[in-house]
Design brief:
heterotrimer; A alpha+beta (673); B mainly alpha (354); C alpha/beta (337); B: 354 residues; mainly alpha; 2 domains; two-stranded antiparallel sheet; 4 strands; C: 11 helices; globular
């Protein structure tokens, strides 16, 4: 036979042998119980073996092929593993399992704290001094024992490393005062030195020294007493909540210095300030006290964690929360990065993914694979679980739990017209455009609120899984009142507000504007479409055009305040009303909206009061008042909070819901059969 | 022949220069702010710091100055260190890969090469072999079958095909998983016992005498190789077939037959060398096509090569990384064309003796 | 054992009987060769003349069995060569004859050589295949052959590629290839058509000399009667797949009896003709072989046609010894003056 035939035959044989010899990934076996029944018959016993036919009520066991390894399939890659620098969710998931904090949340309760690396703590009456008693006998992964000195160093270094891209602003405010977002502002309050190590190093050495000392005086360790004391510049309600997040992770001072961080000397701190993510010393090395250790991180591919064999909770028999485990159940966690949904879906089907992110538009693809459905019961604050129509299907779904993400539609009070602005048409109130200060009139803002159909939004953008938000807080939070003042879809009121707007000029001529969304983001597109439809229903002279933009153009337009209305989402950093009040009323969004000074000052007063109060009842009152103001001024349209979904294989045990943690990021309590 | 090769070799630096100029011009479409990612990782929020960065790296200087800086690097006035410069191997920092671009390429390129090289096998043998088969058996059943197979392959979008294969052979049957190796194999590879000579796992596994790892890697490679190769296999088949049909019509084939040569000899010795010349031309483009096809294939199969890195970068508008990928491909294309030209000279004496 | 392929002890070297080759194409069926019969003796030179499409090349390819089987088919006939019917041989047996006992040279020297192999190699192929020579012997023999056909510096040129030869040289080399294995019959299919006139003469001359020297029979196919004048002993004139006239060359030239032959002769330019006169050409066009009407195929273009010509196809009938013509009016047909 010819050479070519020979080679193709060899190829075919090789293929065949591989196919036959390949270990097929076993699909989960179902173990059906056999029941042995003994019947007595005159003359002797007769054993009759009866195999029970699988009945729907009888629990079918799901077994995985690899119970020793957990496979979490994600879409976002870790940016950095430095707890003082990381500010996004992918890295957060890894850090949460490697490091620990002074306090942590009590299981499913997002409002109360239990001791973690601190055994107990005291708060002074004026709310400005916190004393934490540091637990003894806790070892870092490299064997060093944790001391109060490590704790103090952790926070000092974090502050002194600074960085406006980092979460350190959550600490600078309580320690140094509201409005201070970076330690460099202690040296130059104008913020000119922010993020620039070079410029900071050129500053006045006395000022530098003073700034550092301000930091080291605020955080003091007492090794003999076994405590660390925090001196705040004002009472700060959210302080414990801030400490409980990943940026409160305790690191090993000796190890950290060995890896090139600040040596602890106030004369040199400016040389370690403002690292970039690429050359941060702790970017890809870790040494925590937590239940898992980093095996390796291959950027763009995977992160692998292995169980900590010397985990202190096991040795000291301290469960993570009441009723919780003391040690990790699974030896190895593989966090795999797979960006393509089709591939993730295939992995779910094949059983190679224990859980993964399912985009909202694809849930209908996954739902047929759900055999057990756990629905959130808001009264019980827990799930009710039951079988679905296909009770033997391999997945379990938790749904209905309130998420901590909300999207709003923000009005821009002073639209940037420099160099021309295509989004505002003619720029006049002549029916062909809008003026730059269009949204300065309260009637316009109220009209847009009345002309928004929340039910339609929840149905279209959230698949019906969501609830309208009242005010700028989110449901379940301190100060949130589901019956508080809020707008509803009311075309008549909308029409009447429009008639009053701008002395009747709006109703006379109508208006035209463009709202943009980044292509692919159906939520934002839906919001714009609802406004467009509802306004034109009132009168066709109220025109809104919708345009899809590529992400960078979209972002640039918003940052430059060119877009008359921008739609944006926020996920909370800490579960505290301040973390919603600050960005929405006075911080990030307020500045993007070019909020007028009087409005801003009023909000600022309320926000500062709210964060400073330590009595929860008093805080609740303050935030209720702020909600009323938010309703009166209507600076935005507060949309809806989506409810979440979490899919997992049914051989996974131990998953619990706490709104703080990303759904698939805490592996400590998880077990796998 | 030697003259020819020398002449072609001398062209290479010129062509590469042209490619770099093209890439550089594309870079100029970015604002100086975005181009700062060539040198720094986080684009500063602070206006002043941003200006400082732009000044430091000369991002507002005239184009030819910037081109030179981009090519050879720029000297930091205060520290005296040289930063950047693609000739120094610094392609900037890849935001999406969380590492310098050149590191990303170093880590991921062997994987892509492994995939592309294996894909060449079905393209060449399948495509050429079946193309010849179809031509020789013109209009018989095998010819029709082969043609239909090729049309389907050419028309099927590769990501659809890839996902389909994944659903059937992985999700349902569990035979061929996505990714590059299984976790247990990865653990062995990362350990000190395994020596990565070429960083191509199939080859290294054989060199380390670990046949279990070899089979594991091959298992992961089968579907991506098929998906990647299908398109090019189909094209090669069509070109080979039509070229062979054309060749078999030539007079010298009749001459060869009239000499009494066996049909097999006529086809192999007389028809094939002539018929394959368009395929050789195609081969250069095919290799490059394979290297760009990996962008989709690697994404679907979650295969950690430069293709999926480029896809991630493109989606997140990490222009620096995408342009590095383009530069890499441009370089490979130039080299491939050189190879093809040399191969041509070897096969076709009319070219050689000009 | 009796060899069924032995048909007769024919005294002729090659005897073609009623050879019919059909092509099945989209429009219908074409009988490119429609009942051709003739004989060829050792050392004889036969000219086969006709215009394009008359079947002269196809009949030669049919003898060599080089017709592509779909769409072609040798429908019937017998080609007896040295006592064996070539049409009944197996493929292997036929291959042994091709290039060895019967060889062929083709029209276009530019495309008849494989461009990627040397001339020498392509000649050596035949030698190694049929004569069992090894490389060295074949190489030496190839040089000899090139010298024989008049290629200058043959020891250098033998390793050259076809594109390094001129047209005329290529054709000479082709002849060398055809002669390599001492064939009994050489079929030359319009070998000078693609060459210019001076080279034409040289090639004709060469073939004639070689033929006499080696004692080969030659079938020379051409559309140009003038070309075979110096070479052929006998001529077959073909039209629409049939032989319409055949006979010794001098007879044909002096006394053509088929109107087509007359036309062919008349359209030859000759020295001494009155200048300024337009060259004669046969009016009309070659027939479309699909759906040939009954009757004489030449009738539409014929000056001598009668009613009978439209309805009955004439067969070859003797005019004088060895001279046959297929025309109802052959007695009236005379050469043009």
């Amino acid at each position: 036979m010819s050479k070519k035939t020979l080679w193709s035959l060899i190829g075919l044989l090789t293929l065949a042998s591989m196919v036959l010899g390949a270990c097929a990934t076993p699909t989960p076996e179902k173990v059906v119980e056999t029941v042995v029944v003994t019947k007595e018959v005159p003359g002797g016993t007769v054993e009759v073996v009866v195999t029970a036919t699988p009945e729907p009520e009888k629990p079918v066991e799901f077994k995985s092929a690899d119970p020793k390894t957990l496979y979490s399939v994600t879409t976002g890659d870790t940016d950095t593993l430095d707890p003082a620098w990381n500010y996004e969710s992918a890295g957060d998931a890894v850090i949460q399992n490697i490091y620990e904090q002074l306090v942590t949340y009590n299981g499913t309760d997002a409002t109360s704290f239990v001791p973690a690396l601190a055994e107990k703590w005291e708060i002074s009456d004026d709310g400005m001094t916190y004393v934490f008693h540091i637990r003894k006998g806790v070892k870092f992964h490299n064997g060093d024992e944790m001391t109060p000195e490590d704790v103090a160093y952790t926070f000092q270094r974090g502050l002194l490393q600074g960085g406006t891209w980092s979460p350190q602003w959550l600490f600078t405010e309580p320690f140094f005062g509201t409005g201070i977002y970076d330690v460099a502002e202690l040296v130059d309050p104008e913020g000119n030195l922010d993020d620039s190590r070079e410029d900071l190093q050129k500053a006045d050495p006395d000022k530098l020294m003073a700034a550092c000392e301000q930091v080291t005086n605020a955080i003091v360790a007492d090794n003999d007493a076994g405590t660390v004391t925090f001196h705040l510049s004002q009472p700060w309600g959210p302080f414990l909540a801030t400490l409980a997040q990943s940026w409160g992770s305790i690191i090993d001072k000796k190890w950290s210095i060995e890896h090139g961080t600040w040596d602890g000397d106030c004369a040199t701190w400016q040389n370690f300030y403002g690292v970039s993510s690429e050359n941060a010393p702790l970017r890809d090395v870790t040494n925590g006290t937590g239940p898992y250790m980093l095996d390796h991180w291959t950027p763009g591919e995977e992160t692998v964690l292995v169980a900590n064999p010397n985990y202190w909770r096991v040795e000291q028999n301290v469960p993570v929360f009441e009723g919780g485990p003391t040690g990790p159940q699974i030896d190895r966690v593989v966090i795999k990065l797979v960006k393509e949904w089709g591939t993730r879906f295939a992995m779910l089907k094949a059983g190679d993914a224990d859980f993964t992110y399912v985009p909202r538009e694809d849930v209908s693809q996954v739902d047929p694979m759900v055999g057990e459905l756990c629905d959130w019961n808001a009264d019980k604050m827990d799930f009710d679980c039951g079988a679905t129509d296909s009770p033997d299907a391999p997945l379990r779904l938790f749904k209905g739990m309130p998420s901590v993400v909300r999207t709003d539609a923000f009005f821009v009070f002073n639209i940037n017209t420099e160099g021309g602005n295509p989004y505002i048409g003619s720029g006049q109130l002549d029916g062909n455009g809008i003026p730059a200060d269009f949204f300065n009139d309260i009637h316009v803002r109220k009209a847009f609120n009345y002309c928004f159909d929340w039910d339609s939004f929840i149905k279209d953008a959230l698949n019906g899984e969501g609830v309208q938000n009242v005010g700028f807080l989110i449901p379940g939070m301190l100060g949130y009142d589901p019956n508080g003042p809020h707008y509803s879809y009311d075309p008549d009121k909308c029409a009447s507000e429009l008639e009053q707007a701008w002395d009747g000029k709006v109703a006379e001529n109508g208006f035209r504007m463009q709202i943009g969304y980044n292509t692919g983001n159906t939520t934002r597109q839906t919001v714009a479409q609802i406004l467009q439809a509802d306004l034109s229903d009132i009168d066709s002279k109220y025109q809104i055009e919708i345009i899809g933009l590529p992400w960078p153009s979209f972002l640039a337009a918003i940052r430059a305040k060119r877009m008359p209305i921008f739609i944006s989402g926020w996920q909370e950093d800490i579960h505290d009303p301040h973390n919603w009040a600050q960005p929405f009323l006075v911080g990030t969004y307020a500045s993007r909206q070019a909020m007028p000074k009087e409005m801003l000052d009023e909000f600022k007063a309320g926000v500062s009061a709210g964060v400073a109060a330590s009595d929860p009842a008093e805080r609740a009152k303050i935030y209720k008042e702020l909600t009323q103001k938010d309703y009166d001024y209507a600076p935005a349209i507060r949309l809806a909070v989506a409810t979440g979904r979490h899919y997992e294989q049914r051989w996974i045990t131990g998953w619990y819901y706490n709104p703080i943690y990303g759904a698939d990021s805490r592996y400590f309590t998880l077990g796998k059969k | 022949m030697v003259n020819y090769i020398i002449r072609r070799l001398l062209m290479v630096p010129l062509l590469l220069f042209g490619v770099t100029v093209l890439i550089f011009l594309m870079l100029q479409f970015l604002s100086p702010v975005e181009r700062s990612a060539l040198y720094v990782r986080d684009i500063p929020k602070n206006e002043r710091v941003l200006e400082g960065v732009i000044r430091k790296y000369g991002l507002d200087k005239p184009m030819y100055v910037q081109y030179w800086n981009w090519l050879v690097g720029i000297k930091d006035q205060s520290t005296g260190k040289i930063e950047g410069g693609i000739l120094r191997g610094d392609f900037g920092y890849s935001r999406t890969a969380s590492q310098p671009v050149v590191d990303m390429i170093k880590h991921r390129f062997p994987a892509t090469i492994e995939l592309a090289l294996l894909a060449v096998v079905p393209v060449l043998f399948g495509g050429v072999f079946l193309g010849v088969l179809g031509a020789v058996n013109h209009n018989k059943f095998i010819d029709h079958f082969v043609r239909i197979f090729a049309i389907v392959g050419w028309s099927f979008p590769d990501f659809v095909f890839g996902l389909l294969l994944l659903m059937i052979f992985y999700a349902t049957l569990g035979w061929f998983p996505p990714g590059r190796v299984s976790d247990w194999a990865n653990q062995v590879i990362q350990s000190g016992q395994f020596h990565s000579y070429t960083h191509m796992i199939t080859l290294d596994a054989l060199l380390n005498l670990r046949f279990d790892i070899f089979w594991d890697a091959l298992r992961h490679l089968i579907l991506p190789v098929i998906t990647l190769a299908y398109l090019w296999w189909a094209l090669t088949l069509r070109v080979t077939r039509s070229s062979m049909l054309e060749t078999l019509r030539q007079d010298y084939i009749t001459t060869a037959r009239s000499k009494g040569l066996a049909e097999k000899v006529v086809i192999m010795r007389h028809a094939l060398p002539n018929g394959l010349m368009p395929v050789v031309t195609l081969a250069g483009g095919t290799i490059v096509g394979l290297l760009s096809g990996v962008v989709i294939v690697e994404t679907v199969y979650n295969y950690p090569g430069v293709g999926s890195a480029a896809a991630n970068a493109a989606v997140s508008l990490d222009v620096i990384t995408v342009l590095a990928f383009v530069l890499l491909n441009g370089f490979i294309l130039v080299m491939m064309n050189l190879l093809v030209d040399i191969l041509y000279a070897y096969i076709d004496p009319r070219v050689r003796l000009d | 054992m009796e060899d069924s392929k032995v048909v007769s002890t024919s005294e002729h070297l090659l005897e073609v009987k009623d050879l019919t080759t059909r092509f099945d194409i989209e429009g219908g069926q074409v009988y490119a060769v429609n009942g051709v019969s003739y004989t060829l003796d050792e050392g004889e030179a036969l000219g086969v003349v006709g215009e394009s499409g008359c079947g002269k090349s196809v009949h030669a390819l049919s003898i060599m069995r080089l017709i592509p089987i779909p769409p072609g088919r040798i429908e019937k006939g017998e080609v007896s060569f040295k006592g064996r019917d070539l049409l009944k041989l197996s493929d292997d047996e036929m291959r042994q004859i091709r290039g060895k006992d019967i060889s062929m040279i083709f029209q276009d020297p530019m495309t008849s050589w494989n461009p990627v192999l040397t001339i020498g190699f392509q000649i050596m192929e035949a030698l190694q295949l049929h004569m069992g020579m090894d490389k060295v012997a074949a190489h030496a023999r190839a040089i000899e052959l090139l010298e024989l056909v008049g290629v200058p510096e043959p020891s250098l040129r033998v390793d050259d590629y076809p594109h390094q030869f001129s047209g005329g040289m290529r054709q000479r080399a082709m002849i060398a290839l055809a002669l390599a294995c001492n064939p009994s019959v050489l079929i030359a299919d319009e070998p000078t058509t693609a060459l210019d006139v001076t080279i034409q003469a040289q090639i004709v001359d060469l073939v004639k000399r070689l033929q006499q020297k080696l004692g080969m029979a030659v079938i020379w196919i051409t559309h140009d009667l003038g070309v075979v004048a110096g070479l052929a002993d006998r001529v077959n004139v073909m039209y629409a797949g049939r032989i319409v006239e055949t006979g010794p060359i001098t007879e044909i030239y002096k006394n053509p009896r088929h109107p087509y032959t007359v036309g062919l002769l008349g359209s030859l330019p000759s020295i001494g003709e009155r200048t300024g006169e337009r060259l004669f050409s046969i009016p009309g066009e070659p027939p479309d072989l699909i759906g040939l009407p009954k009757g004489c195929a030449f009738a539409p273009r014929c000056n001598y046609r009668t009613e009978r010509c439209w309805n009955e196809t004439p067969e070859l009938e003797e005019v004088s010894p060895g001279h046959y013509a297929a025309c109802w009016e052959k007695d009236k047909v005379r050469k043009m003056q």
